[in-house]
Predict the structure of Aldehyde reductase.
Amino acid sequence: MLNFDFYNPTQILFGKGRIADLAKVVPADARVLVLYGGGSIKSNGVFDEVMAALAGRTVQEFSGIEPNPSYETLMQAVELIRKEKLDFLLAVGGGSVIDGTKFVAAAVNFEGDPWTILEKRGRNITSALPFGTILTLPATGSEMNDGSVVTRKSLQAKMAFSNKLVFPKFSILDPAKTFTLPVRQIGNGVVDAYAHVMEQYMTYPVNSPVQDRFAEGLLQTLIEEGPKALANPEDYDTRANIMWCATLALNGLIGAGVPQDWATHMVGHELTALYGLDHAQTLAIVLPGMLRVRKEGKRAKLLQYAARVWGITEGSEDARIDQAIQRTQDFFEKMGVKTRLSDYQLGAQNIDAILKHLESHRMVTLGEQRDVTLDVSRKVLELSV
Ligand code: NZQ
Ligand code: ZN
């Protein structure tokens, strides 16, 4: 096992009716800004519950944080907070609202150009406003991690940052609040969580059976529960299992002490920045090709994955690996997330532009062995046409 630091201060309040507990976790004298997205929380009653739970506090709202939150929009929230002297943020929504809130929290008192927070990947943050979250879409793990991804539309740049100062103080996870998710977002959430586990598990062995078995358990749970959520959207237990899976997939636990990949995510971010695809759609396109092209470097873990996650134990090594990768791709399709560039009206003609963006963001030696060069990314994309 590799050396590691594990730190996660986020308090989780999980279960039915937990929004009512907001009053216990938001300081009584806080001047609160509630941040949210395009309005799903208004139509499904979550907003009213939040306001009722915050009764008695100074509360303002900021709406319109878009999927793949934009720097341009988030800076408007920063202005509002400075003007109104607000001091506590509450993100209510999916990963985009939570990521956006993390950026806002870090930018409010930042001296200098806030875009450099993204350029320096968060290393230059020295303070952040405290914030909590109410999660309505299980997918990113942002509710219990210190990462955030922000898009600057004018530059077509989607960039990530992280810093310990932007862990949420608390996150409320009520699985019943995910009943109103559109089918597309249920699929997206399961695929994103699956990809997060794979980025931390599908590398090379370092004798880490605890992390491996946690990871395999999360993958198997997603494989079992994901299709149930599509078939019975109001099954509470299914939603609860998926929600907790997605949180554990990216809260630092399974990634502690093991090599990590993340090449699929980095290539995927360029696809979103250039063509507006949903985050999980990009992962469904890129991940199968990434595994096929990098089969040799990942051979030992691919065989373990085939056996333990998919129960594939017969046949030659190559046949088992190929089957496991195909089963992975089929699972994404079963969750309603298409896995080819051509499914999104993209193709070979787009590959040069994607590689150019990777290069301009210095994404030229990705992966756990830093061997995912632009040539490797090209091969992956060619396989994904
Ligand atoms: O904006 P509203 O109206 O709320 O609608 C949203 C949005 O249109 C809707 N939605 C959310 N909860 C709902 C709901 N609709 C009905 N009922 C509900 N309960 O779903 C749509 C998508 O929301 P979004 O927040 O964009 O999705 P997701 O949670 O998948 O977040 C994606 C973003 O997170 C980033 C991605 O890159 C992307 O920008 N990621 C963040 C990570 C992190 N912080 O660790 C890691 C991930 O790899 C990922 O990169
Ligand atoms: Zn992701």
